[in-house]
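Final report, closing paragraph on structural work. Over the funding period we assembled a curated collection of sequence-structure pairs, and we close with a single example.
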Amino acid sequence: VPPVPWYAPEETAVSNLRVGFYTDNGYFSASPAIRRAVTEAVSALQASGATVVPFSPPDTHEAVRLFLGVLSADGGQAMRRALAGEKPHDLVKGLLQGGETPGWLRPLLAKLFARQGQTHLAFMIENMGKLPAADYLQLVEGRAHYRTRWLQAMDAAQIDALVCPPFALPALTHGSSVDLFPAASYAIPFNVTGMPAGVVPFTTVQPGEESDRTASKDKADIAAQFVEQGSAGLPVGVQVVARHWREDVVLNLMAALEASR
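Its predicted structure, as stored:
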């Protein structure tokens, strides 16, 4: 049975909560409108009585490493079974290829792509692939350690919940997701840690704030800039995250943000 006491509604009132926030995870930059959405959302919570403080998320690179490693540890067998002979989408095809790449070849490919400026792709290739049981268990142990790091960081900041980007970009153009796995890095830590999270629409991309990305050779950055162009008017939301077993806190904060619009 989950160790969850029955909380009185007033205990989770927004005015009794201390909320952390961040707009950049140190792995992949969020669009200007999404960063603005976060700052406006926490201002709305502050106006409702919440205590709001900046927060630094623990090592998103480690979350992505663990996620990719666990996802591909079986060499893509589970994905193949789920496809049942169906032709995979290009994004799924890339994940399958990453999982099936021989271990001896992955470091070589990673170095090659890194030299070509494809740093995100290099990181993915380096951390994907079929693993022996002992290495898989190391990932499982690493996941537990990473979860502890998150809880310790939240304890140190004395926060009940977080507000952050849910994804680095507004709605994607068709086909662009193939190169934009890094944009999902804002959700990955909570897939890895198992913390409850929800997304609530909050604002729209305004004219003139579509993109502020610098020029890059990296396909993910190029694809992100392409998606951002012409995105004015698209809706963007914020992600609300709480501690394990505290879905009530997530829902209360989401309701407060929805009511503030």
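The mean pLDDT is 94. Residues 133-157 form the longest helix (25 residues). We thank the funder for supporting this effort.
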